Please model this.
Amino acid sequence: MPRLAIIGGTGIYDPSMLNGLKEHKVVTEYGEIDVITGHCCGEDIVFMNRHGKGHALPPHRVNYRGNIMALKNLGVERILATAAVGSLNPEMGPGSFVLCDQFMDFTKSRPQTFYEDGQKGVVHIDMTEPYCAELRNTIYEAACSEDIPVIQGGTYVCTEGPRFETPAEIRMYRQLGGDLVGMTGVPEVVLAREAEICYATVAVVTNYAAGIAREPLTHAEVLVAMRESSERFRKLILAFVKR
Ligand code: HPA
Model:
């Protein structure tokens, strides 16, 4: 049974760091989910494209519950999630890797819980430490061992998308204490906690956020920036899996 999963976000679609790749469909009560299994350094690993095959689903339509339930059903105990983000913080420039330690949720239309209608009980999970500190530390140590700079801690602001933000929104998020902005971190992190799976996010900064960047943002620019970071990212994953 695979104990580790990697959720590939925008620009991280390539599981070729794993050997013996096999595609599977996992049936969940939230729908069928495609995953790829493989192994690396003696460990069985699941790779999941957050946005589905071919990046078909926009952030507000990602099947977050199906994705996390599929990983739970496969026996996954730890998830390393990746996320392309814009930066609000001058100390987290494009190309930075950041291990998120807090989030703020500005999403609007997404199912946020496995405990929707109270039939499985009324559940309020604790979010004091939303990302797994132990997993974060292990990733951090792996990065240090390979001299890959990683920033330990950052507040991720999740917006609904699929549009990018206005400069006024970005100013507000910054005043509230946000460091990074993305569209997919919530409810994934919440559902992982409900499913009792350790979860950490490595955010890859692709751009300064709207109004901080001088030019208007494009998705193509995000993809190009992710491609530029992908080799370093692959090294980080390998260093982490070896631990
Ligand atoms: N905003 C929201 N999501 C993003 C951004 C951004 O600037 N960059 C990459 N994902």
Summary: The radius of gyration is 17 Å.
